[in-house]
Each structure stands twice: as structure tokens, then as C-alpha cells.
Design a protein that fits this description.
Radius of gyration: 27 Å
Order of helices and strands: HEHEEEEEEEEEEH
Number of strands: 11
Structural class: alpha/beta
Helix content: 25-40%
Distance between the termini: 20 Å
Shape: elongated
Length: 212
């Protein structure tokens, strides 16, 4: 066996190992991405005037503005995903007139009720979630329900989720970090295989020319 063959085989083992590692990293990123699916929000809640979304899991508290948007007729963030035993604070901006926070009829497990509508800036309503609130709750501002002042809270991990993309597609929401890792590992894998091809095809010729 020539030294060219030995070097070539050693290089191919190294290239194969690098490609396998890149593939494993991509698969890991794909698995993590597949787990990042959003709650299956009721259409009326997800169609709230601002339509913003916050995943606040891992936080002890989160604040939602009441009277957000250009006309003061929205909750912001409109949709919030929290853990059990998280304190949610609704804080009035003073815009858009009098507002309140109330679970819609048959809107979910959490009973939200801030009382009579108020318009005072800085007014707050607090609610601490519990295991009894696990799931999705759709709420609204009673005086402005007809103009789309709706919101939603998702409590806990064991709730209905949806693959972003809709329909019967297997597409999922892919975080930016996972997407970047997948692209980087794919480029590395292609580059490694490309170098392996060049070495296999021309390596021996180049070596002989150098020896000559």
C-alpha cells in the first residue's frame, strides 16, 4: 500500500468524523427546535389589536399594559405564556377610556376579573396563577370587546400547542439560535466533504508532482 493511499484513508476518516459531528449537531438543533412550539391560542385572543406575544416562562412576574396601541384599545403583550405560581400584573396606561380585565364566557380555567372598568393611569390588577389555571384562558375588556380588545394567557407546560405553519405541515417554529447553528453545521459539512473530494481526486497527483 502506497503512502498516498495511507494518507488518503487517514484524511477520509477525519473528514467522515467531522461530517458525522456536523450532522449530529444539526440533528440536535432540529430536536430542540421541534420542541419550541407555541400554545394553540383561541382565534379571538390571538386576533387582539396589538397581537404581540411573550414567552415569560421562568419569570416570577410579567406585566401587561392595558390600553396599549395607537388608540389605547389593546393589551400588550396580547398573548403571554407563563408558569404556575407566576404573578401577572395588568397595568393601565390611561389611554383609550375605561377598561377592565375579565375572562370571556367559557374562556378557560383562570377566573380573571378586575372589577368595574377604570381609566386611571397606573391602576393595576394582579393575578397569581396556580395549577388550577393550567391551560389557555381567553379574556377581554368588556367595554371594548367588539373592537378587538382581547388577550390570552397560557399557564404551564402541559397545554395544547401548535406547530407554527398551520395545516397538516410538520413545520415547527425554529428559534434563531437553532436556525443559525443548523446553517453553520451544514456549511461545515459541505466544505469538509468538498475538501475530501478534491483530496481524493487530485491528492496523489499533487504529491507526485511535488516529489518530482
Amino acid at each position: 500500500m502506497s503512502s498516498d493511499d495511507v494518507s488518503r484513508r487517514a484524511f477520509m476518516r477525519t473528514a467522515g468524523g467531522a461530517a458525522a459531528a456536523a450532522g449530529a449537531a444539526t440533528a440536535t438543533a432540529g430536536t430542540a427546535a421541534a420542541q419550541e412550539v407555541e400554545p394553540d391560542w383561541p382565534s379571538a385572543a390571538s386576533g387582539g389589536n396589538v397581537g404581540s406575544y411573550t414567552d415569560a416562562r421562568g419569570q416570577d412576574s410579567v406585566t401587561i399594559s392595558v390600553g396599549a396601541g395607537d388608540q389605547g384599545l389593546a393589551f400588550d403583550p396580547t398573548l403571554v405564556w407563563v408558569d404556575e405560581e407566576t404573578t401577572i400584573v395588568w397595568e393601565w396606561t390611561g389611554a383609550g377610556g375605561d377598561h377592565n380585565v375579565q375572562t370571556v364566557e367559557d374562556g378557560g380555567p383562570a377566573t380573571l376579573d378586575s372589577g368595574s372598568p377604570v381609566g386611571e393611569e397606573g391602576y393595576t390588577y394582579e393575578y397569581e396563577t396556580s395549577s388550577e389555571d393550567a391551560g389557555i384562558t381567553h379574556y377581554h375588556c368588556v367595554p371594548h370587546t367588539a373592537v378587538g380588545m382581547h388577550g390570552g394567557i397560557a399557564v404551564g407546560e402541559d397545554i395544547a400547542t401548535v406547530d407554527v405553519g398551520g395545516g397538516s405541515s410538520d413545520a415547527v417554529f425554529v428559534p434563531d439560535a437553532a436556525r443559525a447553528l443548523g446553517i453553520a453545521t451544514f456549511i461545515a459539512m459541505v466544505s469538509t466533504l468538498g475538501l475530501a473530494f478534491v483530496f481524493m481526486k487530485y491528492g496523489g497527483t499533487i504529491t507526485r508532482q511535488e516529489q518530482a
